[in-house]
Amino acid sequence: MRRAARGGRRAVPGAVRRLLGPGARGYREAGAEILAQQPGVRHVVTALGSGGTMAGLVAALGAERVLGVDVGALPDPATVAAAFATELTGREVTAGQLRVRGEQVGTAYGVLHEPVLAAITTVARTEGVVLDPVYTGRAAAGLVAAVRDGAIRPGERTVLLHTGGLPGLFGHAEAADRLGRMLLTRP
After folding, report:
1. What is the largest CA-CA distance in the chain?
2. pLDDT value for 57
3. Own/partner pairs for 75-82, CB < 8 Å, 24+ apart?
4. Pairing, β 99-101 against β 66-70
5. How does the average pLDDT of the chain come out, rounded?
6. 96-116 mean pLDDT
7. Non-local CB neighbours of 177 within 8 Å, separated by 6+ positions
8. Euclidean distance between CA atoms 51 and 68, whole angstroms
9. Rounded CA gap, 16 and 13, in Å?
10. Is 80 exceeded by the pLDDT of residue 104?
11. Is the CB of residue 18 less than 8 Å from the CB of residue 25?
12. Where are the beta strands (DSSP E) in the chain?
């Protein structure tokens, strides 16, 4: 870590690398699979928590195609994701090169944010897919915001990466209750 710091690069601490490295490499493979199945993909939207998922996708797809939606798990997730992406690609990736949206954190990590609830409800009603309120729900809310502000335009091939997390919905009583009530109400 000191050697990398002397060279002006940010290093990923060894314990973090050992924990998240295999996952980041797995998402590099997932990114390659997305590209093989959807060669014209313009945007892949994912939750940005510890940085490993986004780093793997960036390694496979390039920073310009990946939109990370910060979930509030780390104070500076883009720096961590960039360090992972640098390790995976063998070339420097900086936090400034990454596309990151931060407005879906809300008041704090794990606290239900109204746009997230709206996105979860919309996806459940229109696609029949249930999202968790901390990770993929925030990614979906970030996708909605990106379409609204023009960062993603209609007609551009876009993938919302659902990374799981459904058990998180059941551990989040407020979200489960509010989502249940909203789904029982006609739009």
Report:
1. 59
2. 97
3. 77/48, 77/49, 77/50, 77/51, 78/48, 78/51, 79/10, 80/12, 80/16, 80/50, 80/51, 81/48, 81/51, 81/52, 81/54, 81/55, 82/10, 82/51, 82/55
4. parallel
5. 85
6. 92
7. none
8. 9
9. 5
10. yes
11. no
12. 43-48, 66-70, 99-101, 158-160
Q: What does residue 91 show for φ and ψ, rounded to 5 degrees?
A: -130, 155
154's tokens: 């209609």
Whole-number Cα distances in Å, 124 to 46, 67, 119, 132: 17, 22, 8, 11
What is the model's pLDDT at position 103? 95
CA 67 vs CA 57, 158, 172, 183: distances in Å: 10, 10, 25, 28
Which of 32-43 are b and which e, b meaning 16 or more Cβ less than 10 Å from the residue's Cβ? eebbeeeeebeb
Given pLDDT bands bounded at 50, 70 and 90, which one contains residue 172?
low
Nearest to 89 by CA among 60, 114, 118: 60
Kindly calculate the radius of gyration of the chain based on its CA atoms and give it in whole angstroms.
17
